[in-house]
Amino acid sequence: xxxxxxxxxxxxxxEEKLQAIAAAGFYGVEIFENDFLTFDGSPAEVSRIAQDLGxxxxxxxxxxxxxxxxxxxxxxxFDRAERKFDxxxxxxxxMMLVCSNCSPAALGGIDRAADDFMALGERAAQRKxxxxxxxxxxxxxxxxxxxxxxxxxxxxxxxxxxILDSFHSLARGIPSDSIRAIPGDKIFIVQLxxxxxxxxxxxxxxxxLRNMPGQGDLPVRDFVIAVxxxxxxxxxxxEIFNDQFRGGATKTIAVDGQRSLLALMDDVQRAExxxxxxxPDLPPPIGVTAVEFIEFATSDQQAPQLAAxxxxxxxxxxxxxxxxxxxxxxxxxxxxxxxxxxxxxxHSNYVTHGTSAYAVGFKxxxxxxxxxxARMLGAxxxxxxxxxxxxxxxxxxxxxxxxxxxxxxxxxxxxxxxSEFGKDKSSATGAGLIRIDHVAQTMDYDEMLTWVLFYTSIxxxxxxxxxxxxxxxxxxRSQVIENRGGRLRLTLxxxxxYRSFAGHFITGNFGAxxxxxxxxxxxxxxxxxxxxxxKFSPLxxxxxxxxxxxxxxxxxxxxxxxxxxxxxxxxxxTDGEYFQLYSPVxxxxxxxxIVQRTGGYSGYGAPNAIFRIASQRxxxxxxxxx
Length: 626
Known about the structure:
Blueprint: E1 2-6, H1 14-23, E2 28-32, H2 33-37, H3 43-52, E3 56-63, H4 71-91, E4 95-99, H5 110-126, E5 130-134, H6 145-155, E6 160-165, H7 166-170, E7 187-192, H8 202-209, H9 220-229, E8 235-238, H10 243-246, H11 250-271, E9 288-297, H12 303-311, E10 316-320, E11 326-331, E12 334-339, H13 344-353, E13 356-364, H14 367-376, E14 381-382, E15 395-397, E16 403-407, H15 413-421, E17 433-444, H16 448-458, E18 462-463, E19 467-471, E20 474-482, E21 489-495, H17 501-509, E22 513-521, H18 524-533, H19 543-553, H20 557-566, E23 569-572, E24 577-582, E25 591-597, H21 609-620
Parallel strand pairs: 1-2, 1-8, 2-3, 3-4, 4-5, 5-6, 6-7, 7-8, 9-12, 13-16, 17-21, 22-25
Antiparallel strand pairs: 9-13, 10-11, 11-12, 14-15, 15-16, 17-22, 18-20, 19-20, 20-21, 23-24, 24-25
Helix pairs in contact: 1-11, 3-4, 5-6, 9-11, 11-16, 19-20
């Protein structure tokens, strides 16, 4: 199926939208009427711009309050339709969307509506125009695609068909299987939108909170599977009303749209092997088996501070790159790379953002396939010429400008590390940190859906329900991306304003980045004691937290005293326990975390976030706005 998007889905002026849509790789575009009415040009000029960009105008929309009007007003709605037909012919578009009537004057009645559409079909046929009827979820009489189909069926006109919109059907809980009975040739176009699962007036939900397929919680895949079962092989188009997108970067949202449709069609084909879309074959969603390394960009001047920060947490210097100013630190299965090169991307990143964790290396099932899938879904590849005897790691640019590297078993990983950094001869046992538990990235909240879609479209992961984190300076929205084995855990934290601790980090680092990395241990008390011997100074947690902890969880006094002595935070659920220990803040808000999971605990200690943030704000002092 071909892809299309409605201009209302993007910010900007009409020509800017069309340019972004074409650049993102869409086949077509729906012209939303208000975008044309505010355009200072003729319909023919819109047609010319679209043609020059290689876009097909798939639909002109919406035409409102048409069917079932009283006799006194009926002629006027047909006159309005003729005027729209005039514009459409000049614009070179042959399909118009009529949405179900919401007017208080509408009379209703399936046969009355069918008679009106049969008459409209006759007029449209004279202009070689097709008219699609869409059931709005809040339509006065028709608010169900099954009733809209009955109107179309009774109108029985070749120029009248049905338009299906996933939001209007799924928001009302209408079974998608009901679509299967509709002939595919009577479905003129399919519009898609996802949305978060929240209880809200359906009109407000639709106008403000729709998002791309894969960014929300509606069963859009099942909807498309049902559509495909009808034999429909037309356009899949996005119609997204979202306040964030209206104020977002036009090009970014357009790329997100194309990415979401390609990933959705790939998902449908994998769920139903008998369904085949005319889209390039993507490698399957990529499995991640580990976070192989984190790479920091810094300078010669700041590297000693970063090294001391890491060494107090038990990391040891395990090697120096043979040809570059890059140092490897290790502990357990954790590798941290510190890059002080004065050229290349790491240096550029340092100049822009200061000391930061700018690159993450993932061990995946197939590194080449990962890059291929990511590129086909619109990600930019990253290649940096290796030195003599070095291995070029496949990579892509992440959403925030950082780098994601990919390694697999086809590469001799131990050999790569040894050949480039020398044999690790360090003998220190460290502090008991054994693996990277999760990586937390912080971004503006308005960008968060883009990050979610980026990861979920490329990797074999699931997204957890979003959580609101209360900060004394504002709200932070947090969402976890993880795979089923827990080998990949990413926490995405969207800051709504600069006054929060997360917002301060974004401001201080001039953009989104990894804000903290959590390391796993099997015994957090032993780790805390080992860190204390290294003069590690943990983040100081308010004693009021521990006064409340015993009563809240019914913990023994001895346990609470042990937790408080080491500034360890605690959480538990029905599956197990979770312990958290935090480093001091480094720079503008970067920090490290140590965690221990027992039993089947799969959360991230969200109830403790407010206490951690309050302590971090106190540590930074007046640098964080109150």
